[in-house]
Amino acid sequence: MNEASPPPYLSYPNGTIAVCFFLPPKINSAGIWLNPANPSELLGFSLPLLETQLLLIFSVTHLVYATLKPVGVTFFASQMFAGVILGPAMLGRIKAFEDTLFKPGSGMEVVETVSAFGFSIFLFLMAVKMDVREVFTSTRRAKVIGIVSLFSPIVVGLIAYQSQSDKLSIMERTIGTTIESLTAFSVVAWLLDDLKIGNSELGRLALSSSTVSNLCSLFIINIAGLSQHLHESIPLFVKYVGITALFVTLLFVTVRPLMYWIIRETPEGRPIKGAHIVLILAIASGCSVFTNWFNQSPLLGAFLVGLAVPDGPPLGSALVDKFDCFARGVFLVAYVTTTTMKVNPKNVFSDPEKVKFSIIFVFSTFLAKFISCFIASFWGMMPFRDASAFSLIMSSKGVVELQYFAGYRGVKILSESTFSVLVLNILVNATIIPVIVKYLYDPVSKRYAGYQKRNLMHLKPDAELRVLACVHGSESVHALIDVLDLTCPTKESPNVIYVLHLIELVGRDSPVFIAHQKHDNKLVSSHENILAFNQYEERNGGLVTVNAFTAISLPKLMHEDICTMALDNQTSLLLLPFHKKWSIDGTMVEDENSMIRNLNFSVLHRAPCSIGILVDCGLRSWRQKSMKPSACYSIGMVFLGGKDDREALTLAKRMAYDPRVKLTMIHLISDQEAVMDLDWEKMLDAEMLKEFKQNGVGGGCNVTYTEEISNNGTQTANVVRSITEDYDLIIVGRRCGVDSVQTTGLSEWSEYPELGVIGDLLTSMVLDSRVSVLVVQQQLYVA
């Protein structure tokens, strides 16, 4: 082992390079004790060298991350900083360090090969997570933003490149512009995950838009790659286009059905077999080899196989659970770091004119993407700060762009100076954008904020009413069904009810979320409740659709299940039971659950739609009425003014279309209102009241409008006390934080602020009057 090793490369005057290697290759060493006088000799073996390189990469990466995390730097940016530290800019300048650990050529081949394989696995998993249907089912806003965010920087970039047409090839201009204009789904998803805003409305819009942009750009990049053959030979171009089209067709005709066969072969509730997992990875690897054979990137094959895998459980989630942590935590770290190590400061300044242009090009395309995304989102009624944060997220760069630049550098399409500038741009971008987004967007207060109006007032007359009804126990089920039954579903405006049974997580660590099928009684504790809602659906003969779910989670996290479901299903109303439980005759309080009360408070501050809190006194007469088709319900509505009262009035108006309902609207006014100037809120109130004053809701005579004078809180309390015996249900607005003459002095005595002043007043009288109360709060977060 002491004999001198031959040089790994021999260069000849005619330009020929001969590669020298050992046979058999030196893989495993006998350890540092093989040659105690020269322990570093073990790094001449590929496995110890690889282990040392990975250990050093991980150590530097995590050290940088621990240092910069407090200021908001992400783990991806830390990997790139580690590459700068280990590369020619810093430690790589030390010849002994470079020759021992990261020698160009022989010292980097193994780690680059391993990390490249790991990156293909990562890209495969990202494709598994991507739902191709988003391109067709996403909202019009997401499609517009996705397309605009791609083509606006392409146009700007190509215009900028015209000034360098004599110095840059057509391929370098096209590829550089398209990649710089790309919004990669995996980059956006990773950033949203780091910022913990993936479940927010902003995060969902970013994922949908990036999916559209990513697939469009993938098509453009591959067409640009194939167009190289057009200059060489038209038959060759036709050959490769045909092979590509045939490959994609066969993939989705044969591989995707195979994936569904694997799902069918897996018993419900059982994990995917290991043999099936290995088979899928083998297909992905084989497709990578095949795409490399016809001069396409091997990563394309793995990515397309990932798209052919159905996302979500059981197959997609099984693949992600098994490999995502290892791919992102090991392989991807090595890939990002080793790729960034190829940036040499000398190359940055080797061609000043080209570098200067590259900087201008990068800045102009970024600005074009940011401005186009901002205009598209801001025009769609998104707040200024949120639109700015969203535009920055869509303009973020990451590992996908890094891979493209490294690949095109390897085939000499991008020069060393251009490559260095573009990679450093990714580093600056990945460092600054997350910090600014954190400043602009608060994930705690706006996690479930919506950018469209999901409330009853803005529901179209022919739109279905989507309601999320939350159930804790069987005692609140019938009351919720009674309220839903009064919302008057029709063929033009049917009801879609999402029932969420909330169960406290006890005796286990992992929360559980169950989507129940019809007549599914796997969870005994939910069966009775779900059966009652299914019967309600059957009684309404196609006018009502019920979807039942059970969430078993910690009480402090239950609001996330509720708000996420409301956001996912775009509900307009969320019904919550009050935390107090009355006896069946309404004469005493049987139970008072503080956990439910805290949950209601959390939902009131975060819900992405309007909310109704139902205070059910448990009257037997209501239960009996619900069983009689000819029964008449007497509903009262107390109106003072404000957006919550207008929302409550809209709900009461919908109920009034039911011929069984007799609605009385009590408008509390003060003597001072006649001489006060009308503000915008009062103008909106007056417009809402017109129809009720004319006594013509639904064209019937079942609506009564009355006005009561109230100049202080005492008079209001007297009015409320006088009407409680007259109705089965009284609807009021919460009016949180709204002061008026009629409620003066009442808030100081309020026991239940979650019900508002009037709701609290009515609830305190329940033991005397036994009337049920529905308190309505209009959607808070509307751009």
Automatic annotation (TrEMBL):
MF (Gene Ontology): antiporter activity
Q: Where is the Cation/H(+) antiporter C-terminal domain?
A: 634-778
| Any Pfam family | CHX17_2nd
Which part of the chain is the Cation/H(+) antiporter central domain? 496-628
- Keyword DNA-binding (UniProt): no
- What's in the GO CC field? endomembrane system; membrane
- Stretch forming the signal peptide: none
The record's listing under InterPro entries reads:
Cation/H_exchanger_TM (IPR006153), CHX17_2nd (IPR057291), CHX17_C (IPR057290), CPA2_transporter (IPR050794), Na+/solute_symporter_sf (IPR038770)
Q: Where in the cell is it found?
A: Membrane
Q: TM spans, by residue?
A: 42-66, 73-94, 114-132, 144-163, 175-193, 205-225, 237-263, 275-295, 357-381, 419-441
Name the major location: membrane
A biological process from GO: potassium ion transport
Q: How does it sit in the membrane?
A: Multi-pass membrane protein
Record domain Cation/H+ exchanger transmembrane: where: 61-438
> What family name appears in the similarity comment?
Belongs to the monovalent cation:proton antiporter 2 (CPA2) transporter (TC 2.A.37) family. CHX (TC 2.A.37.4) subfamily.
Name of the protein in question: ARABIDOPSIS THALIANA CATION/H+ EXCHANGER 3, cation/H+ exchanger 3
